[in-house]
Amino acid sequence: MGVKTWIEEWPVYRQLTGNDPLGRAAAVKSRRSATLAPRSATADKVVKSICPFCAVGCGQNVFVKDEKVVQVEGDPDSPVSRGRLCPRGSSTLQLVTGSAREYKVRYRRPHGTEWEELDLDTAMDMIADRVVATRREGWQWKSDDARVRRTMGLASLGGATLDNEENYLLKKLFTALGAIQIENQARI
Amino acid sequence: MAECHPVGFQWVMEAKARGATVIHVDPRFTRTSALADLHVPLRAGTDIAFLGGIINYVLANEKDFREYIVAYTNAGTILTDEYRDTEDLDGVFSGLDTEERTYDFHTWQYEGMEVQAASGQRDQEYEDHPGTKKGRASSKSVRQSGRGEAHGSGGAAIAGEPEVDPTLQHPRCVYQVLKRHYARYTPEMVEQICGVPQDTFRQVCELLTDNSGRDRTSAFVYSVGWTQHTVGVQYIRTAAVLQQLLGNIGRPGGGIMALRGHASIQGSTDIPTLFNLLPGYIPMPHAHAHMDLDSFIEGESPRKGYWAEMRAYTVSLLKAWWGPAATPENDFCFDYLPRLTGSHSTYETVMAQLAGNCKGYFVLGENPAVGSANAKMQRMGMANLEWLVVRDFSLIESATWWKDGPEIETGELRTEDIGTEVFFLPAAAHTEKDGSFTNTQRMLQWHHQAVEPAGDARSDLWFAFHLGRRIREKLAGSTDEMDRPLLDLTWDYPTTPLQSHPGDVEPEAEAVLAEINGWDAEGGPLSSYEQLNDDGSTACGCWIYCGVYSDGVNQASRRTPATEQNWVANQWGWAWPANRRVLYNRASADPDGKPWSARKALVWWDEEKALWQGHDIPDFTASKSPHYRPPTDASGAEALAGVDPFVMQADGKSWLFVPAGLTDGPLPTHYEPQESPVPNLLYSQQRNPVRQILSMVHPDDRFQPSGSEPGAEVFPYMMSTYRIAEHHTAGGMSRYQPYLAELAPEMFCEVSPELARERGLEHAGWATIVTARNCIEARVLVTERMTPMTINGRVLHHVGLPYHWGQGGLARGDSANDLAHLSLDPNSHIQEVKVGQCDIRPGRRPRGPARVELVKEYQRRAGITEHTGTEI
Questions:
Q1: How confident is the model at residue B121, as a pLDDT?
Q2: Nearest CB neighbour to A158, from listed B365, B393, B513
Q3: Looking at this predicted complex, what is its ipTM?
Q4: Can you give the pTM of this predicted structure?
């Protein structure tokens, strides 16, 4: 490689002398980058989705390869967002595939000082047992002579980040349990 | 809006590019202010004075849209002569019971009739209804129960027709009452109270009124900056009064837009995980002796408008939940619904946890240890539970407080002493499940599953379904009456095997959506709530969502590109009700059904076809002529005239004056916040007299002195909490992500250069912020974005506090909500965190028990007792 070629391959030189003064396109291309393809181009499928952060409801395209989410981008078709995502929405890939995700049930026994591991099936069974017992303990048929048919033993908080179908099943189940202290972020 | 809803803000910019004027009213200069034509800083907590001032300008200069208000609002309706205004009673309305701290609304009624709210505090009138069986539930507990989130709003005549003066001259007509109510909200008063210079204020008045009328409309956008106050509902009401006067409701480019903060917070209000509601804003029944379905309906529903069909909505819901077990003979299992006795909001729940009555707690995708007011109370409540279940992506503060919470550090709690058993279950992400979100404009959008959740992560649909299944299995065979609602529950949803978890199944979200939509006697999907019957022949899980699965098609998953349809874009997703995009859009046409102007046409009456037509789907009976007048004995939708656009309302009209449904007055009135450095300049009544506090008095929730009271000077600065673009609410979805954590890595406070000088605060140094509840530390951002204001002859400073942080995650810091108190709006039970008083001092806060001691020292200096700030 001659000196001239060597200098001309230097991105800063190309940025200063070429027609890409901001260094966002041709100036920063290399032989390696020329062979790269975006993850969105090599994905097996694109799944239509909606941003999970705020309530604007921006459209998202979720790119999947080998049964893994490899990229999340704004959906240009959406009349709400026209393909845009904000800093939060743009971080969706990290939200759904990143290091912060927990994949194991954790259990802290009463007075315990550390988390312990617990099998999901066992955890669900223990929770169901506690709901049944606490519900009964806090049961009221009457309050001030009026029939109330309820339990004051248990409560729930959350729903604004959940799907409508999830809120529906939760409200249906808690109401059938007689639990009334059911709330979510909408109150806050 | 540019901070919290950046992508929505692109449309504001689009409007600006097409000539719209953007006004930003906010105590701080933000990214929104940077792009607005005019930024108006005002003192936090004074919006009613500001908006009331504009109302006064509109009325004094007759800038109202007279044809619109005469035809579509209750401006001409005459009130009873028993009504007394805040002008007559120095800041309170007639009907105030100072012992109970509630209003009796009866003197707020229309002349010659009683009106019932169809949302809000509907059950207020239960005992008045001729058809209800009288019980002994106190009216106070009913008023406290917070019926309805007042979406849609409305009410109905119990009997009679209101007296109306279309000339608006009668001294007791709403228009004249309104005029007197706001007469003293002058530019001078606005300047004194809000700190907005008179010239700037007049400029806002002129811009707004010049841009409203036949040819032009103006929109208001708000968020929790309006709701999180002891008078939050009345903030929004003030905007509603103003927008009605200007004719900006039900018209394109008009309205009052609530920008909501979570992907489906609107959905979780429509299908409410809220104590006071059933799906579709049907109220949860309040306990009355001997109440059956008939008396519930009679007590809660009006005669006129779509709420008159509440029996059909309720019976269809009961059929969806209890299926064949719900029969006409057993009142369709109405008795299975648990009953309310007063408020059971999240803050009462915390009090019940502290009292030891509430022992089990589910926290589902929410982080109260950071995100709720007086977050210490939330943590102390959880420390007093028997068991806690947290479902989230990460180990958020609400899951880990027992080992690393602030109270462990101060020594107020010791891990080994805490008996709470904690289950953390990892949640599935939106990419790992099918389901719908309802966005802030009431639009349902379906997200499709891309991959299955890994490890133990599962959807909340899975969690609810399997928890219910297990409980039902455990109770199978029980003959105990208390278990009947569980055992009779329809819970047989179709499932799909999870490929990566052999033996495990996921319930089908679309089957749940189909139940929400409802079906007829043959099991066919319904297409409209107008098909719902009250005889048990239809089932529907949420009447306002009826139609989202019409023709058996998931309408929420429709995705016709924006470029392939008109600007209303109603082939994308599905909006309730009936896919209408602008509510009450009948008001976009004049009484004869013609658009107010060609430029602002949205829907119109087509005489030839005898149908309503338009760009949007008319929010009106399609074949009802503008000239239709109901027979006197008509009821329900039939009783609405062709000129009654507000179809959920008692009188088909929009309400400038609210005769029933609000707990704290028929007209918005300026009150100072719970904690304020200034006295109320308009009335001797300092605060909202019926704000909710008394059930909340607790040693960890002391209030501070206000105005000129001794000790108020100990907390000389105003504070306000808010959000920034880089983080999401209480941080569970952002502070644990490396990218977002890096963008905004730690807690900070914003102060003006003047305040920094006054208190010796250094940019990028540390400050400690103190209230009577707690003290926190934050990095100092000295910025001219914070403006000192001259209020009542005194310079006042705001301390800006973003509230995203906690001790967990990658971006950490103290939580601003630890400073907040539990003084609530009496209608919505929402806490006042948008305005408060504090002290700020340089340096980090004390560690260990000294942190608690510092707060106690401030309490002593300010002379704070359990009674401070609890005056009516």
A1: 66
A2: B365
A3: 0.96
A4: 0.95
